[in-house]
Amino acid sequence: MRRDVLEAVADPGKVLQGNYGALMAVCEMARGKYLVAVYNELERDGFIITAFLTRRVSSLNRRKQLWPTLQ
To answer: What is the Cα Rg of the chain in Å?
Structure first.
């Protein structure tokens, strides 16, 4: 799923605040099934920490949404 993970970071549905400065790119893969890519951005580079599939959106919705910003 390497391509899917890279696409999730490049064009996420939303970005959430992760732990210790990490970001979480969330992309819906199928109805009710989400790919979450946890990554760090550095000044000119970045790296993916981990990625996983989940259906548990309630735990994701408790995190602060960074993009797109909520009004």
So the answer is: 11
